[in-house]
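Record now logged underneath.
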Amino acid sequence: MKTPRKQQGVVLFIALIVLVAMSLAGVALWRSIGTGVLIAGNIAIQRGAVTSSDGGIEAARFWLMNQTPTVLNTTQTRAYVSSWDERFDATSFNWDTLGSTPTSPDSAGFTTQYVVHRLCSLPNAGHNAPNQQCLTLSVAGGSSGRGGGSYGVLPLSGTTYVYYRITSRAVGPRNTVSYTQSIMY
C-alpha cells in the first residue's frame, strides 16, 4: 500500500496571489471610473458657467442699448465705468459693491453680474471732448444702389460708434467662477 504524499500548498499560495492581484485591479478600475465621472462633472459645471456668463453679457448689452448718451458719458455708481480702466482685473474687482446686481440663480444654479467699461481714456466726458481718446468705429456710409440686399440698412455716413468692454462673472455650484469678456459698439 502506498502512503499518500503530503501536500505542500503551492496551489493555494498561487491562488491567494491571483486573488490579491484581481482585488487590486478591481479597486484601480473602480477608482478610475470614479475619477472619470468627477472630471466629466467638472467639465459640465465649467460649460454651464460659461453659458450663464454669456447671459450676463446679454443683460449688459440690453442695458447699454437702453441708455442715453448723457448716461453713457458719466460713470455710474454700479456696473458702468465711462473710461477703459487699464488696471481692471476681474478677479480682484469688487463685484459686491461695484458690479451689477446679481441675477436670480438660473436653472443650473449660477448667478451672473456684469460691469461695462466705455473704451475711452477720460472718464465723465463725451467721446468728442478735447483730449479724449476713444476706441471708435466710424461709418463712411454705403452705396446708393437699390439692387443690393442691404439697401437702406447702413447708417448715415459720419456716424461714430464708441466701443464698450463688457465683463461678466458667473458664480455657481462647487465654488465655480467664470469670467467672460466681450467688446461691442
User: Anything to note?
Assistant: The chain has three helices and six strands. The chain has one domain: 13-144+152-184. The longest helix spans residues 10-65. The radius of gyration is 31 Å.
